[in-house]
Every structure is written in structure tokens, then in C-alpha cells.
Design goal:
This protein has 101 residues and is an alpha+beta fold. It has one domain. 47% of the residues lie in helices and 23% in strands. The protein is built from five helices and three strands, in the order βααββααα. Strands 1-3-2 form a three-stranded antiparallel beta sheet.
Length: 101
């Protein structure tokens, strides 16, 4: 499956939307992938450069997630955050694509 046509959200955007630290979102994704290995095609990991303390560069992992991967990840969040997940899904994915068959 070519994910470039169906990328819905970046893991950094999910962290901002849910008020979580990015490494905790990555840990949740890793847990989803351990529990459901069939979900691997829905996540693509990349590394982006970040300036380190003394001017050096380090590379930090982030995930590009398609709509099915986002739904699997959202199901792993506490029920108190499901409203946020639904709002984010409707904003990023669009209601028309959720109702299309």
C-alpha cells in the first residue's frame, strides 16, 4: 500500500491535539503494533533533525499515520480522550470520507 496518498496525520500533531508528550504517543503506537502486527502498513516511521544542546544535530523518530492507523491508535487512548479523538478524526480526515463506502 502506498501511504503517500492516504496520510491522515503526523504523530507530532496527535501529541499536540491530545496534550501528550510526543514520546508517549510513540509508545502508544509501539504498543498497538506489538498487540496487532497486522497494523504495520498503517504506520510509516521517519526521522527528522533536531538541534541538540551544544549545536549538534540529533534525529528524532515520528510516525505518519493513515486513517485506519489513527483509529487503532485512538481506541488505545482513555475514554476521557475519545471526544478529542473523534474531533481530530473529523477535522483531519473529513466527515465525508468516514461515511463513504
Amino acid at each position: 500500500m502506498d501511504m503517500t496518498a492516504c496520510i491522515a496525520v503526523d504523530s507530532r500533531e496527535i501529541a499536540r491535539a491530545f496534550g501528550r508528550r510526543h514520546h508517549n504517543v510513540l509508545a502508544a503506537i509501539d504498543l498497538v503494533l506489538r498487540q496487532c502486527p497486522a497494523a504495520v502498513p498503517h504506520y510509516r516511521f521517519e526521522y527528522h533533525p533536531v538541534t541538540a544542546g551544544l549545536g549538534g544535530t540529533r534525529y528524532v523518530r515520528h510516525a505518519l499515520i493513515d486513517r485506519e492507523g489513527f483509529m487503532l491508535l485512538a481506541m488505545s487512548f482513555p475514554s476521557t480522550q475519545r471526544d478529542t479523538a473523534l474531533t481530530l478524526a473529523l477535522t483531519l480526515i473529513g466527515p465525508s470520507s468516514l461515511t463513504a463506502s
